[in-house]
Amino acid sequence: MPTTVLWLRRDLRLHDHPALLEAAKDGADVVALFVLDDALLAPSGAPRTAFLLRSLRALDGELSRHGGALVVRRGRPEQVVPAVAREVGASAVHVSADFGPYGRARDVRVGEALGDVPLVATGSPYAVAPGRLATRSGTPFQVFGPYYRAWAEHGWRAPAESDPAAVSWSTARSDDLPADPALARDVRLPEAGEEAAHAAWDDFRDRLADYPEDRERPAVDGTSRMSAYLKYGTLHPRTLLADLGHGRGDETYRRELAWREFYAAVLHARPESARDYLHPQLRGMPYATGELLDQRLQAWTRGMTGYPIVDAGMRQLLGEGWMHNRVRMIVASFLVKDLHVEWTHGARHFMHHLVDGDLASNQHNWQWVAGCGTDAAPFFRIFNPVTQGRKFDPDGRYVRRWVPELAGIEGKGVHEPWTLPDGPPAGYPDPIVDHATERAASLRAYEALRR
Q: 80-97 pLDDT, tens per residue?
């Protein structure tokens, strides 16, 4: 029988896996390979690296139950993958397609290095692959609404019926997986692996009916928290979509999955937007520099701005490697439009700390907030951190959990501790800036730039 290599990247599962089905076709022996690529590991912070390593260990355990083992090698993929293919006499190397800027260029290099051994791409991390949909004029979508309608109309395949027990697994020499990096503040990461992903999804489905309301409340366990599992493909969005019905919660969640796919499509069409402005008109906005930039960034990253909802979010990021989506928007708006710090600084901080750090979603959500992304005119959308806190954390439970200095403040006053008779409690700062003043400054700068 021939031998094939299944080179795993963002598809760390054994079920609903089209590339595995293709690799095992005609009874081929399959070698499961993962390459520890320093180009991807270096910019990843400890939480995401630890979650990746735990996902790999879980995958290796699942493979062992079916008579296989995960082959791990460290190095440059264009050197490692051809070397493994030669060692096992592979007739082909199978992958799930990668549509990110680095992944696309890497796969070209690997394909060239493999020579006569084909690099076969089957499936992707998305229900609808980036680049598949286009406007009537044939151009990529730049606005979510029309994209969503085309995405829903296009539809997606049913989950692939891959059965790891039916695969003839083979193996090769493997490097040891490194130990988890040290996690600051005892970060509490979600349980890793395909089995844990399915358990988390099953748990959320019991709460799906309440999702439209609860997803906006950071103190409530109202979101799915599937983003980390989708990041590394321990569960495919196609699996989630197959379970969704037609209720209001189902439709709301389906739209959220589509946002992930929309941003992947935008990045595919405009790969430079991973680091640069999607719309360069706002590149000339005045932003803090030098010592002022350092001071403001330090206060924001530590959760010491004096605005409770902002500080709670930034501390949740440090404590869980994750932040509630509503709060992500609040803290991003505050950094860009109250502290006048360029969005690239915030995007880089998020990508370093988030377990679910996805390049397309992260960069384009930040650009959406900064006014240079896919929304027509979002710069005028400047979140007031006090009113946002009162609206979405009305009883202050979220703030009190993550900002213990404020735990003794009752009622909605927890969102404005500087208004208390004695000011903020000991150890908690006064507001770093005045929101009304900085909001006006941002709008003046925006109007000046437009002229």
A: 999 999 999 999 999 999
Residues with Cβ within 8 Å of 405's Cβ and at least 6 positions away in sequence, in order, are: 424, 425, 426, 427, 428
Structure tokens at 73: 């090698």
Structural domains for the chain: 3-124 (3.40.50.620), 125-159+194-269 (1.25.40.80), 280-450 (1.10.579.10)
**What is the spatial distance between Cα 296 and Cα 386, in angstroms, rounded to a whole number?**
19
Question: Which residues contact residue 206 at a Cβ distance below 8 angstroms, ignoring those fewer than 6 apart?
Answer: none
Tell me the residue ranges of DSSP E strands in 44-123. Answer: 71-74, 90-95, 119-121
CB 381 within 8 A of CB 333: yes
CA–CA separation, 409 vs 27, rounded Å?
Answer: 66
pLDDT digits over 183-209, tens only?
877 788 999 999 999 999 999 999 999
Report yes or no: 114 and 94 within 8 Å, Cβ to Cβ: no
Is pLDDT above 70 for 377?
A: no
Q: How far is CA 39 from CA 10, 84, 234, in A?
A: 15, 19, 22
